[in-house]
């Protein structure tokens, strides 16, 4: 017998064993996945982003200086301070989450906000995402930071490459004197091309936008804008200053040129959040919704009042133009319901009116400053 | 545990080893002579990591792509048993797989422009299509086991004449840049790594052939690529992929 070829057998066995599916590795993610808080304590569903959590709570419903907030983490992850430990939430509390494999850590800033969305917005307070460098505006109300302005930047960041400049994004802060009406800075929105990646998914442009609410990018192909946060006044007018310079040619989602000149959009919507919440309790796609989305921001039956800029055409010259738009009341509101934080307000700016359907002119610029909601 | 292509290869090796080991009759060839053979056939295998990395949780489907080879080989008999051979083989090395992955470090790109790339860790289902065509030059030692059996072993150098390596993230999400980055849902996002496939693949082969008629034979050959089929510096896949194929076919002595 010649057994020399038998070496093929051990080779085969080694290959066979090596190809088994390995045991699962320890988890690398370090997320706060959900917040457990009683519904009677909150005014809106907790907003959980990648690095912060914002919870609008009912004023006086709890002692926020000693509150044991409970939340869930990625399986296996640990957190310091512990979930359920009493913390003083009169300022945002920083929690550090460590992944199961110990290799990754992430800090979350968690705010419990008792206040309403404020009435004045000067776009003087902002910061940049630590990793992707996009700007986010915030407001301070009685010393408490409210991350109430959201934009599409978080979604755009994904295609922006490594270490993108903040000016690469559709929504920016500007300190350029020609674009600032008062103070040091203003909100600057510019419709941008999303390049080959965006075009492939029929999202060739990203309009600069800024809105009161939050942004959910669980699916990059259908980023979900969540419009509105609690507001405990009855709005009368939406006021402010803006400049609008439309881009050269409008393209649609297929990249085809559409005749006409681009327009901006400026509006505010005041709506009954509690009614919306009740109506969507059993909604199969978005249960328990406490926000309006792209589909119903201007059409929801729960809207109480709308103020919208009549024409979003180019502003003349290089001067800011004042807008003062009365809220058109669609329903009666009870002062007591308003005092009880049952309503939300959404304020929305977009450098391309049809940005939500990915139609607009690359280069359209909308600058807004000194925005104010006057109240009754 | 799922059966992967390598289980199949491994099984063929085991069986082949047993089968070959039983053939022991002495036989001779005519020393200092040349002969030429042509051969063609099919193959099974893939561009595979040597052991399945921990990121791969499940192989949902696998099938070969372009599984063929056709070649011509010149054989030289040194003595009655030993010989050498070389030649030129045109072969396709490809596969189509669908896998579920977790924390798979990768890059998605829609265009040649690298600033448009999206890098991060992907969680979800991913499909991979590899379709590479090579011109291969083998150099092998041959040994006559018997009147019917001949075994060969040696190295080969393959030159890629067509390179394709593409696929889709089917349903899942990506963590931007690292596992703590923004979580972005992904559906049907394409990737294309053809530019990163190496032009040259070097490897080794072992095989045998069985003469069932005067001029005709059946053959089996196992090919293993030494180098990662992707270029050095390519980081979109966090593990090395080797061309590992089992060839079976028929040949004719001219």
TrEMBL record, chain A:
Ranges where the Putative carbohydrate metabolism domain occurs: 127-373
Gene3D superfamilies: 2.60.40.2340, BT2081, beta-jelly-roll domain (2.60.120.890)
InterPro entries (UniProt xref): PCMD, Put_CMD_sf
Protein name listed in UniProt: Putative carbohydrate metabolism domain-containing protein
Species name: Sphingobacterium humi
Automatic annotation (TrEMBL), chain B:
Domain of life according to the entry: Bacteria
Signal peptide: 1-26
A Pfam cross-reference name: OMP_b-brl_2
Keyword check for Signal: yes
Keywords of this entry: Signal
Domain Outer membrane protein beta-barrel stretches: 26-230
Protein name per UniProt: Outer membrane beta-barrel protein
Protein's organism: Sphingobacterium humi
């Amino acid at each position: 017998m010649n057994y020399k070829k038998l070496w093929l057998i051990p080779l085969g066995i080694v290959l066979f064993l090596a190809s088994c599916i390995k045991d699962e590795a320890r988890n690398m993610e370090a997320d706060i996945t959900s917040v457990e808080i009683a519904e009677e304590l909150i005014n809106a569903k907790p907003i959980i982003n990648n690095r912060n959590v914002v919870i609008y709570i009912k004023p006086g419903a709890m002692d926020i200086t000693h509150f044991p907030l409970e939340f869930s983490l990625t399986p296996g992850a640990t957190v310091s301070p512990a979930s359920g430990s009493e913390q003083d939430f009169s300022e945002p509390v920083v929690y550090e989450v460590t992944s199961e494999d110990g290799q990754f850590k992430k800090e979350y800033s968690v705010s419990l906000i008792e206040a309403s969305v404020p009435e004045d917005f000067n776009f003087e307070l902002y910061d940049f995402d630590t990793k992707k460098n996009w700007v986010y505006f915030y407001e301070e109300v009685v010393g408490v930071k409210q991350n109430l302005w959201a934009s599409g930047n978080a979604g755009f960041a994904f295609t922006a490459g490594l270490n993108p400049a903040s000016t690469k994004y559709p929504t920016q802060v500007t300190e350029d004197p020609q674009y600032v009406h008062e103070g040091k800075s203003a909100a600057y929105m510019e419709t941008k091309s999303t390049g080959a990646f965006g075009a492939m998914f029929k999202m060739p442009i990203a309009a600069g936008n800024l809105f009161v609410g939050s942004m959910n990018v669980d699916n990059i192909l259908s980023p979900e804008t969540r419009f509105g946060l609690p507001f405990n006044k009855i709005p009368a007018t939406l006021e402010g200053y803006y400049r609008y310079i439309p881009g050269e040619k409008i393209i649609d989602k297929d990249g085809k040129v559409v005749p006409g000149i681009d327009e901006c959009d400026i509006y505010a919507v005041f709506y009954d959040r509690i009614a919306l919440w009740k109506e969507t309790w059993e909604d199969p796609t978005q249960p328990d919704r406490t926000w309006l989305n792209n589909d119903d921001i201007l059409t929801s039956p729960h809207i109480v009042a709308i103020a919208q800029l009549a024409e979003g055409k180019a502003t003349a010259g290089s001067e800011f133009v004042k807008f003062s738009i009365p809220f058109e009341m669609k329903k009666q509101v009870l002062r007591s319901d308003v005092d009880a934080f049952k309503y939300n307000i959404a304020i929305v700016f977009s450098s391309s009116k049809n940005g939500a359907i990915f139609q607009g002119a690359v280069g359209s610029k909308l600058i807004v400053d000194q925005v104010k909601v006057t109240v009754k | 545990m799922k059966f992967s292509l390598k289980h199949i290869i491994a099984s063929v090796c085991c069986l082949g080893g047993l089968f070959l080991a039983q053939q022991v009759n002495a036989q001779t060839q005519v020393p200092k002579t040349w002969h030429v053979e042509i051969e063609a056939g099919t193959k099974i295998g893939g561009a595979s990591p040597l052991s399945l990395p921990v990121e791969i949780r499940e192989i949902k489907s696998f099938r070969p792509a372009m599984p063929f080879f056709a070649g011509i080989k010149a054989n030289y008999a040194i003595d009655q048993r030993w010989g050498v051979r070389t030649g030129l083989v045109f072969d396709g090395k490809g596969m189509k797989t669908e896998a579920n992955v977790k924390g798979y470090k990768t890059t998605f790109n829609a265009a040649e422009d690298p600033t448009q790339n999206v890098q991060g860790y992907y969680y979800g289902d991913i499909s991979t299509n590899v379709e590479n065509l090579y011109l291969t030059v083998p150099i092998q030692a041959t040994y006559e086991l018997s009147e019917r059996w001949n075994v060969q072993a040696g190295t080969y150098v393959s030159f890629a004449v067509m390179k394709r390596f593409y696929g889709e993230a089917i349903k899942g999400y990506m963590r931007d840049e690292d596992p703590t980055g923004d979580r972005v849902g992904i559906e049907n996002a394409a990737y294309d790594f053809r530019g990163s496939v190496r032009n040259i693949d070097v490897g080794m082969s072992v095989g045998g052939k069985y003469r069932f008629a005067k001029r005709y034979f059946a053959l089996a050959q196992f090919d293993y690529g030494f180098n990662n089929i992707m270029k050095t510096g390519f980081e979109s896949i966090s593990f090395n992929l080797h061309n590992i194929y089992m060839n079976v076919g028929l040949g004719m002595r001219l």
